[in-house]
Specification:
Largest sheet: 9 strands, mixed
Strand order of the largest sheet: 30-29-32-27-26-25-1-28-31
Number of domains: 3
Distance between the termini: 26 Å
CATH superfamily of the largest domain: Glycosidases
Number of strands: 32
Number of helices: 12
Mean pLDDT: 94
InterPro entries: ASD1_cat (IPR055235), GH (IPR017853)
Protein name: Alpha-L-arabinofuranosidase 1 catalytic domain-containing protein
CATH topology of the largest domain: TIM Barrel
Oligomer: single chain
Strand content: 25-35%
Low-confidence stretches: 496-509
Helix content: 10-25%
């Protein structure tokens, strides 16, 4: 029997044109770094902060998640999500070799001695130019040159690369030489450039390498003259063809995703972030540990870089704001287990709520006000960005239940909102509503902060959780005449797998991790059918930010290894679904909605009711055929544009070597009339756009 598409619209407001959002988190296990064009690992020569237990948990690195005392994986290259962008290439003394690329809590990523010559390198805090430490290089040889190097630089034919770095020396008239070698071949360098004479004070040196022929992995090295001692700091090696600092191939892949909103800089990272650390000239930004996750944050990517990235893609920025709280000085209270929470740092500057509100207001001014309207806007212009970034959405912290009770949080949000909207009344403020205690007290929180917020920043894993927040939101709007909307600010597509978020929920751990699931076609198909659920709520749902955008142990829409960039299985879904003009969901006869069913269909008008969108999910192993009766719409359809995504199995995934394991078929048909039939492959997603007369 055909499915009858009725003319009955099931929502009072149209689907949001900002629905398909995304999320980028700084300081989280090499997520942003492979997107950015900087080619050095630890370019500032800083001590490496070990990755914390929570990073190991999210990366599924524990050998036995139920018994962390058994240890963790140190060779990430064995994971199916691994690519070259995750490499932690050490600085090593040359002549020498980088050795195995293991990542342990003891790793310094500094290999201090040459195996063949008297060459020694090491970190020192004596007079560092950038950050807390610099690299001291001692050539103890009387005749031979030696120095230090970093491997793993992937270079392209007909491309240019610029090196720059600061050097000083205790040795009068010291000289050095930049050499770039094909990795594995020390016989003759691809490029050389003299450096010097090097004086007693820090001085910047630079050179540009125009690569004509070689393509592949290369080694950057700096060689020091015999008997010299040289200090180095704040190095950089970048291609000359970046897109505002971003890799061009990354921007191209990201544009295919078509994001409408991008949330940044966190996540958990945002709760310990001072936005001023990520603005201004790169050489004046101080590299820091990633306080929550462990690892490094170079601060090369900050407000201007992320806002510019979003604008290049036509997306709105959503900033997650650090709400100061006294307990943040020492603890990142993790739910109810403080033993997992001490961050090991002293943050008195994050302990004063009033100061935090002033900092947030200044951030708004830096992002949104025109030159001359505020000192922060003038500072933005001094940093090379005269035009405002126009950041619309501001979320009040991340997982605030770590520090705030529901009512105390609502009071803080009201205070922050008033300070921030005094600077720019057009911004929209988000109130967190996830967490058991927060969800119980949504009416009480709205009574305190409702007049000061514009959206609820929630996290729902399925339809029941979504409705539990929509119902009190709608009731408040009806009672108060407000238009607060719902947003899911950090969403994982786990609707059909109740224990997927907690991969150690069962007594017998099977070895199938979150990271394994994230990259597979079944997870990507969940994205599509979950968005059908979001769309059935109409305009009450403003946007849903998929977690994450890039490189997050396959929990992403694009992967960006050094050799290129490609869409994951999830990325292919967003490339297709984000371009659907769906606006008005329609009731269907002959079909009952079940948000967890493996076979689902949905029909929606576009905003002007000129095009009809048909969406079909088939997660089963059997193909099907479907017919839609369009007669009740009283329109004749003249054209059908069909797009289908399919794979050989639910566990199919894309890789750099095989970026199209998820197959896409596009076709067009004319003279549709008032009935439309099509074949539905196994393991497929289908989107049809029908044009009406």
């Amino acid at each position: 029997m055909p499915i009858i598409v009725t003319s009955q619209e099931v929502t009072a407001t149209p689907i949001s044109d900002r629905l398909y959002g995304h999320f980028i988190e700084l300081g989280y296990g090499v997520q942003v770094e492979p997107m950015w064009s900087e080619m050095f690992f630890n370019r500032s020569f800083e001590p490496f902060t070990p990755y914390k237990w929570i990073n190991k948990e999210w990366y599924d690195l524990w050998l036995d998640p139920k018994h962390p005392e058994k240890g963790y994986k140190t060779d990430w290259s064995q994971e199916d999500w691994h690519h070259s962008g995750y490499e932690h290439n050490p600085w090593f003394a040359v002549p020498g070799d980088e050795g195995p690329l293991e990542i342990t809590d003891e790793s310094t990523f500094i290999l201090p001695r040459s195996a063949t010559l008297d060459i020694e390198i090491g970190l020192t805090s004596e007079g560092a130019r950038h950050g807390e430490t610099c690299l001291k290089v001692v050539n103890g040889e009387s005749e031979a040159w030696g120095g230090f190097a970093q491997a793993g630089k992937v270079i392209q034919k007909e491309a240019g690369y610029k090196f720059r770095g600061f050097l000083k020396s205790d040795t009068p008239g010291a000289h050095a030489e930049v050499r770039i070698y094909a990795q594995g071949d020390w016989a003759a360098p691809l490029f050389t450039a003299p450096v010097g004479p090097i004086g007693e004070e820090w001085e910047e040196f630079s050179c540009t390498f125009h690569n004509k022929v070689y393509e592949g992995r290369a080694v950057f090295s700096l060689w020091i003259a015999p008997g010299a001692t040289v200090y180095t700091d704040c190095f950089s090696l970048m291609p000359t063809n970046t897109r505002h600092g971003w890799r061009p191939e990354v921007v191209e892949a990201a544009a295919r995703i078509n994001p409408k909103v991008i949330r940044w800089p966190g996540g958990c990272f945002a709760s310990f972030y001072n936005w001023r650390d990520g603005i201004g000239p790169y050489d004046q930004r101080k590299p820091q540990p990633s306080y929550f996750w462990g690892g490094q944050n170079a601060n090369d990517v900050g407000t201007a870089e992320l806002a510019t990235f979003a604008k290049m893609l036509g997306a709105d920025s959503m900033i997650c704001v650090n709400l100061h709280h006294p307990t943040k000085q020492f603890y990142e209270v993790y739910w109810n287990d403080e033993s997992k929470g001490p961050h090991g740092f002293d943050f008195p500057h994050f302990a004063d709520p009033a100061q935090g509100a002033r900092e947030a207001a200044d951030w708004v001014a830096y992002c949104n006000l025109p030159v001359g309207a505020h000192p922060m806007a003038d500072q933005r212009a001094e940093h090379g960005y005269p035009e405002p970034f126009g950041v619309r959405f501001w979320e009040m912290d991340n997982e605030s239940l770590r520090w705030f009770t529901p009512t105390a949080y609502a009071e803080a949000v009201a205070a922050y909102s008033q300070a921030m909207k005094a600077v720019d009344p057009s911004i929209q403020i988000g109130l967190i509503t996830y967490g058991e205690e927060y969800k119980k007290q949504i009416p009480e929180m709205l009574a305190i902060a409702g007049a000061h917020v514009d959206f609820l920043a929630d996290r729902a894993w399925g339809e029941a959780q979504l409705l539990a927040v929509l119902e009190p939101m709608r009731a408040y709007n009806a009672a108060c005449g407000t238009t607060i909307r719902y947003c899911d600010t950090e969403w994982l597509a786990h609707q059909d797998e109740p224990d997927a978020f907690n991969h150690v929920a069962s007594d017998a751990w099977t070895g199938e991790t979150k990271s394994y699931r994230f990259s597979k076609w079944r997870y990507a198909m969940n994205i599509f059918r979950n968005f059908l659920m979001w769309r059935r709520q109409g305009g009450d749902v403003l946007f849903v930010n998929f977690n994450n955008f890039a490189n997050t142990h396959s929990q992403c829409v694009i992967d960006t290894p050094k050799e290129g960039a490609y869409l994951t299985a999830a990325g292919h879904v967003f490339e297709m679904i984000s371009r659907a003009p769906a606006a008005w969901p329609l009731a269907l006869d002959g079909y009952t909605v079940d948000a967890k069913a493996d076979y689902q269909v949905q029909a929606e008008w576009d905003l002007g009711r000129e095009r009809l969108v048909l969406s079909i999910v088939n997660m089963a192993a059997e193909p099907r055929s479907e017919t839609f009766d369009l007669t009740p719409l009283e329109r004749v359809f003249t054209n059908a544009q069909l797009s289908q995504l399919a794979a050989n199995s639910l566990t199919t995934m894309n890789t750099l070597e095989h970026p199209d394991m998820i197959r896409r078929l596009d076709s067009e048909r004319g003279s549709v009339g008032v009935s439309y039939s099509l074949d539905i492959p196994a393991y497929s997603l289908t989107q049809v756009i029908l044009a009406a007369e």
